[in-house]
């Protein structure tokens, strides 16, 4: 029987690995450069995570947890959906969120190709959707209506974020993107105005 894992040391390695992947992405990820950058060895990475695929899985999970923890600081039970979307966009469109957005789109593209990333596709596609749908139901929308509205919100937000990332590479003015999001927020506020607010049990995850 092998030696037990060292949880404290593994936790430190995982934090450093998440920072590295957020900065460099996954496309050219190799154990040797990663290990050198975070002060460990390829052997220790395999010791802690088993395989490169196991390392990537834990890095993506930890990155998602980190993002959800940041977003959770402004999610309040009584905030209307339009206000939550405005807060979310304020963070998502900031430079602080760029590494998470770039990683999201990279992993989403890899997941569509199947293989080792196939399991991440459903999680990436649904976490934020279920959260928004739940808040829309809480705001009084019927189930079918909330599902369609959540689909519109999630798809538009992701499209605008992709536009924003591309625009930062080309120097394009972001006012068009922000104005489009403002229109979506206004529409959402109108759709949920003067609705009954039933009590909902539980909250979806953000991601």
From TrEMBL:
<dbReference type="GO" id="GO:0000976">
    <property type="term" value="F:transcription cis-regulatory region binding"/>
</dbReference>
<feature type="domain" description="HTH tetR-type">
    <location>
        <begin position="7"/>
        <end position="67"/>
    </location>
</feature>
<dbReference type="Pfam" id="PF00440">
    <property type="entry name" value="TetR_N"/>
</dbReference>
<keyword id="KW-0805">Transcription regulation</keyword>
<dbReference type="GO" id="GO:0003700">
    <property type="term" value="F:DNA-binding transcription factor activity"/>
</dbReference>
<keyword id="KW-0238">DNA-binding</keyword>
<dbReference type="InterPro" id="IPR001647">
    <property type="entry name" value="HTH_TetR"/>
</dbReference>
<feature type="DNA-binding region" description="H-T-H motif">
    <location>
        <begin position="30"/>
        <end position="49"/>
    </location>
</feature>
<dbReference type="InterPro" id="IPR009057">
    <property type="entry name" value="Homeodomain-like_sf"/>
</dbReference>
<protein>
    <submittedName>
        <fullName>Transcriptional regulator, AcrR family</fullName>
    </submittedName>
</protein>
<keyword id="KW-0804">Transcription</keyword>
<dbReference type="InterPro" id="IPR050109">
    <property type="entry name" value="HTH-type_TetR-like_transc_reg"/>
</dbReference>
